[in-house]
Design a protein that fits this description.
Blueprint lengths: L14 H4 L3 H4 L4 H11 L4 E5 L12 E5 L3 H4 L26 E5 L8 H10 L5 E6 L9 H4 L1 H10 L3 H8 L2 E6 L2 E2 L20 H5 L9 H17 L1 H6 L7 E2 L3 E7 L5
Parallel strand pairs: 1-2, 1-3, 3-4
Antiparallel strand pairs: 4-8, 5-8, 6-7
Helix pairs in contact: 5-8
């Protein structure tokens, strides 16, 4: 089992620090949730690995949630099942225990991606569904112009699409997931048309990449973006995004079904 932070976090980010106000900014986005629900198909029993506070867990299935961070487990609403304290690399379930399994915004946290994916495949009879970001596409957003160091950290942390596909095996589909303008799940690209909102410290804190760069990077980001918004420079360059219904960014849904690779 991998080393954990003091709150039980097993990944590279300490959610005992960054997870305290997480649910204020990270709510499940219905448009994105539809992609996940469709990919789960008719599965009645679902394992959610790295479940966090419960975003994207379907409420019409029997869900078993796994989350190593105590600070995230306590933020799960009462309507959701209590999460099991375990890590992806060592799932405490027997083979083929679940109809389907899912993991959202978590694989980049796992110390051993290959082992974690193999464990998901081991305990799952049907589809394994992974919501993540393609590191090769992260520079598409204007954030790269203001905080290239943060984007570089993200790109380094997120596993490539090929690594995930190889780790899962079987028949794998990679679906691009457009991000809606008023996305309520506040990952960085969700603010593509609402730059003022990412100036809030809590919004950045709910995105773990900011915790991996020096505070001076965040300070410079806030100063430069605040200035460019006041001067109209941001709007001159990117103002069309304020009314653009969707942004085709780095968000991807990987769906792996058992069988031979096509």
């Amino acid at each position: 089992m991998s080393d954990r932070h003091h709150d039980g976090s097993a990944g590279d980010a300490n959610y005992g620090v960054i997870g305290k106000g997480y649910t204020n900014y990270r709510q499940p986005e219905p448009y994105i949730a539809e992609f996940i629900v469709k990919s789960l198909g008719g599965a009645q029993t679902v394992l959610n690995v790295g479940a966090g506070a419960g975003s994207y867990e379907p409420v019409d299935r029997a869900v078993t949630a796994v989350e190593p961070s105590a600070s995230m487990r306590v933020q799960r609403p009462d309507r959701l099942p209590v999460a099991v304290d375990a890590v992806a690399e060592k799932l405490p379930f027997s083979d083929a225990s679940f109809d389907a399994s899912m993991a959202t915004f978590t694989v980049h946290q796992w110390p051993d991606l290959k082992r974690g994916l193999a464990e998901m495949r081991r305990v799952t009879r049907g589809p394994v569904v992974i919501l993540t970001c393609d590191p090769d596409e992260l520079t598409r957003c204007w954030l790269n112009d203001y905080a290239p160091e943060m984007i570089a950290v993200e790109a380094h942390r997120y596993p490539g699409m090929s690594a995930i596909c190889e780790g899962l095996g079987g028949n794998v589909d990679i679906l691009a997931v457009p991000i809606p303008l008023n996305c309520v799940d506040g990952f960085s690209e969700a603010y593509y048309g609402r730059p003022e909102q990412i100036l809030e410290p809590g919004a950045r804190l709910a995105n773990s990449a900011w915790s991996f760069v020096d505070d001076s990077i965040g300070d410079r980001f806030v100063a430069n973006l605040t200035r460019d918004l006041a001067d109209g420079i941001w709007d001159a360059r990117y103002g069309v995004l304020r009314t653009q219904p969707f942004f085709e960014g780095s968000l991807r849904l990987i769906v792996a079904r058992p069988g031979h690779a096509s």
